[in-house]
Write a structure and sequence with these properties.
single chain, alpha+beta, Aminopeptidase, 13-stranded mixed beta sheet
């Protein structure tokens, strides 16, 4: 009844128009975003389309093939890990698959075909791992859908996001914001922090200078960030991305990257320079983005979220250290929690184990560099 087609390139307009048939497709699955992640010959896109017997589109999944491991901490370590590049071959995606049906039986059958297509991609490119994140707003991902992934040896991790309906008034949205966050927004206004939308390619230099500063606070090598400059601009030109900049005394202190598609505004990345003891650019940028999304006719504002707490109590300390600060900030905006899932299939177990060891080295060095960064004292 259903069949798949796998392509390295598709018609951008047609792909995006088909995505709009689904109420939960986001910018993550747009042609422009997927292309923006294809930064060099070692990272390229794959597009999976599912058709019915009448050649009608019934499912879509855009993903990226990574031919080598991504290394964030240093160029030298990247060269060493690249000697074992075959270990890091993976295919991943975000915000998919998109299934164009609300009928539970059809959704299950379409998913089966998507999983078959993913298996072919895994074989064709000898991938060690295939993984992705399901759409945040797809509330039809039930136990049957999850079990279908499990039958094909996918592991499933629980995640959740924070969502605010923009069909309510700004006053009502503000009412649910935590009082400490309201205070930060008002303090930022009193400091006369100014917000500007990035509208010219030359302004990306300021944004990427800020990104380099932010990267140092996270122990990230800036080369990985700079490669994405052209891709960012193409997304901005296509109105898939918005970047808002916050200036304090004419110094760029914060920036907010917002994904925009299908009447859904998604808070993708909030960047700070941490040049001040207290950073107020972020809260003001978040509220500005909510106001902009509301005035622009968006229906949903997604703050993004994170991983759900582990069942194993021995993992809680590590979990809290990684997620508490981020989730505390997002939770204070009053959004409702919605579940989504990370699905992962290990295709080459020995390669994946070695890849995890190398990734741990990268993470350890990155974490060491992060701890060396000194923020200003209050």
């Amino acid at each position: 009844m259903f069949q798949f087609k796998i392509s390295k390139s598709v018609d951008p307009l047609e792909w995006n128009q088909n995505l709009l048939k689904s109420e939960f497709s986001t910018f993550f699955q747009t042609y422009e975003y997927i292309q923006s992640q294809s930064i060099d010959k070692d990272n390229f896109p794959i597009f999976i389309e599912i058709f019915d017997g009448e050649n009608e589109i019934k499912g879509q999944l855009g993903m990226i093939i990574h031919k080598s491991a991504t290394v964030y901490s240093s160029k030298k370590l990247k060269k060493i890990i690249n000697l074992f590049s075959d270990l890091g071959k993976r295919g991943n995606w975000a915000g998919g698959p998109i299934i164009h049906s609300k009928d539970k039986k059809d959704r299950l059958e379409i998913l089966k075909i998507i999983i078959l297509a993913l298996e072919k991609v895994g074989r064709d490119y000898n991938l060690a791992v295939v993984d992705g994140y399901t759409p945040h707003q797809d509330n039809l991902i039930d136990e049957n859908i999850r079990n279908e992934f499990k039958k094909s040896n996918y592991q499933i991790e629980n995640f959740f996001t924070f969502v605010t309906s923009l069909e309510q008034s700004l006053d009502d949205i503000w009412e649910y914001v935590h009082k400490s966050t309201k205070r930060d927004v008002n303090r930022a206004k009193k400091r006369e922090i100014k917000i500007k939308e990035l509208s010219e390619f030359s302004e990306l230099d300021n944004y990427f200078d800020l990104s380099k500063t932010w990267a140092k606070t996270k122990g990230i090598d800036v080369e990985q960030i700079l490669k994405r400059k052209d891709g960012y601009w193409k997304c901005i030109e296509s109105k898939i991305d918005k970047i808002f900049l916050a200036f304090e005394n004419e110094e760029l202190v914060s920036a907010h990257l917002l994904g925009v598609f299908n009447n859904i505004a998604f808070s993708h990345k909030l960047t700070n320079s941490y040049s001040k003891a207290t950073s107020l650019g972020g809260p003001l940028l978040t509220w500005h983005a909510i106001e902009w999304a509301k005035k622009s006719g968006m229906k949903i504002y997604d703050y993004s979220g994170g991983k759900s707490p582990p069942i194993d109590k021995n993992e809680l300390e590590k979990y809290h250290a990684q997620w508490d600060s981020l989730l505390s900030y997002k939770r204070k905006w009053g959004g409702k929690e919605f579940p989504y899932f990370h699905v992962l299939k290990i295709r080459r177990s020995s390669s994946y184990k070695m890849f995890r060891i190398l990734s741990k080295i990268d993470w350890t060095f990155r974490n060491y560099k992060r701890k060396q960064f000194q923020r200003p004292n209050k």
